[in-house]
Amino acid sequence: MPITYTSGEQIEVYRFSIPVTVGVPLLALFLQAFVPRRLPFFSIFDLPLLVTIFFAMARRNPISGLFTGAAIGLAQDMLGAYPIGIYGIAKTVVGYFASSLGAKLDVENAGARFLVTLGFYLAHQAIYFTVARGMVSLTLNWSWGREILAGLANAVLGVGLYFLLDKFKQRT
Amino acid sequence: MESVLGRYRNLTILVGVLFLQVLGLAVQVKRSGDSENTRLIRVWAVDAITPLERVLVWFQNDSRNIWRNYFFLRGVRAENRELKQQIEQMRLEQVRLTEDAEQAHRLQLLLAFKEQIIAKTVAAQVIGSSGSDLSRSIYIDKGSNEGIATDMAVITVGGIVGKVLRVYPSTSLVLMINDQTSGVGAMLEKSRLQGVLKGTADGTVVLERVMSDEKVDPGDRVLSSGGDQIFPKGLPVGTVAKVSPGREMFLKIEVKPSADLSRLEEVLVVTEKQEESAVADGVRVRAADILAQRLPSVPDKPAVDPAAMAGNSKPIEPAGGTSAGTKPLTSVDGSANSESSAHVATGSTFKVAGNGSAAATPAKATPVSGGSSQGVTPAGQTANGPVAKKTVLKPVSSDPVLNSSSPAAGTSSAGGVRPPKSSTEQQNLPVSPNPQPPATEDDPH
Q: Is CB count within 10 Å lower at the N or C end of chain B?
């Protein structure tokens, strides 16, 4: 059953096909797991997060955004050694608020996308740190410089990735 | 509720999804404990419940403490206050009771002296008299069968009556105090002056051996001194009826007997008494004090001339001679003696000349006054107390006062150590266990 999204009169709501809805997140997960072994610097990026932000802003539906984030986050947890749910919680929150923000704002231009990606990356990292250290008791050290740099890197990558994924948008 | 859910549907779903993921994490994560790892969800559940339990327990304990430390203690404090008041009252009561007890003890001691002395009595009825005006004696219906023995005191509620002179199986002869051959150790209650109570020919009773310079008033009570070892100390004898100068610096004190000797119907015979006297607990009584209580008052020892002491032959005569309540005379060895009462030294024998009466063989040592005997071994007495030593005494003249001029028919009692002047002379003298050295020949008496 095609997923249709509706949005307010001023903001367009896009939909994606099922292969895109399922395939893109899986590809992001695969690349996130495979590329850092070849290119270690690539571990600074979080492709599943970028995909979550893109789909959440494009669908502009908090519920779909939170489920998209929850699914991608849990899948990312399943590939890791840590308990399942850390990325799931973080990306669930990011998907929800990214969808809510996408419904309010026009996030089609690059500047908006850059700032939104940067903001949500830092939020994602904060939530991850909180859950990991609070619940799982992981020893993680927060570094603002590193996180901001990583956020900028993800924001730049995200802007480029978003333009590629705009090809798969379907107007509802 | 539905409007809230509909209004915040997206947020509700977000919270629900996040909650599920958190729950999943809690199931997966294990917290390391002492012995084993505990799942985080179990830790959360325990952490969620135990604080509530702690609060409940704290509230319960606090409530209990409030009850214990406040409400209950209020009653306890009040009870404590009340108990303290009771303790104070009890202490006061205890002090009062202690004082009462001490007073009772003192009174008991006072009474115990008499109680100790009079241990047993036998009531007897007066069944007859001697039948002679000269002999004042009565017969009672109790004799040796009832435990009566000679020299037992006969008393009544009013006062002393006399002593048992002769005992028969079922009757006894009692010599009354107003008989001229009778002699009782007595003392004035107020001044504690001791003397010898003697009967006269006319049936009156006089207290002798009281110095003329002593103050004696009519109405003074006379009590038994106990020195005669017959009558217990403190028994009423009579009251002073008249005081007049007597012979040789002594007073003649006429005493009205307490007991109505002319209307005796029932008497008590003291059949048993204890020798020791009651002494207050913790109070040591000197032997001299005990002796002074028993004997007539002993005059102070006069100053002794060193020359006389060096010669040690003739004692110095005190001014006014010796008397019952004045000064002792020194015997040959210089020891003072008292001649206020008739005493018979242990082992001394004498004869009552003339009447063929039985020689007096005193069974016990008694103090002697006015006489001397050979071979006397008295317990010497000094001004400070009795001194046990042998004394060789010179015979002295008989005491005209103590030695009766009219013989009692067939009666004799323990006599003095002096030989009687006349053949019909008899002596009925009170006896004392403490022999006294008799007066020497220089004794004015």
A: N
Residues in chain A closer than 8 A to B9 (CB atoms)? 63
* Separation in Å, CA B316 to CA A61, B163, B305, B320, B435: 152, 38, 7, 12, 22
User: For residue B267, which phi and psi values (nearest 5 degrees)?
Assistant: -135, 165
Report CB contact under 8 Å: A62, B13.
yes
pLDDT over 90 (residue A91): yes
B5, B13, B17, B29, best to mutate vs chain A, most A CBs in 10 Å: B17
The sign of the dihedral angle between the CA atoms of B372, B304, B248, B203 is negative
Structure tokens at B109: 């001691």
Contact check, Cβ <8 Å, A63/B9:
yes
Q: What is the pLDDT of residues B189-202, one digit of tens each?
A: 888 888 999 988 78
**Strand B160-167 vs strand B194-199: parallel, antiparallel, or unpaired?**
unpaired
- Tens-place pLDDT, residues B229-251: 888 888 899 999 999 888 778 88
* The dihedral sign for the CA sequence B36, B41, B44, B46: negative
Judging contacts by C-beta atoms under 8 Å, the chain A residues touching residue B29 are 83, 135-137
Q: pTM (2 decimals)?
A: 0.39
Q: What's the pLDDT band for B344 if we cut at 50, 70, 90? A: very low
8 Å CB contact between B158 and B234:
no
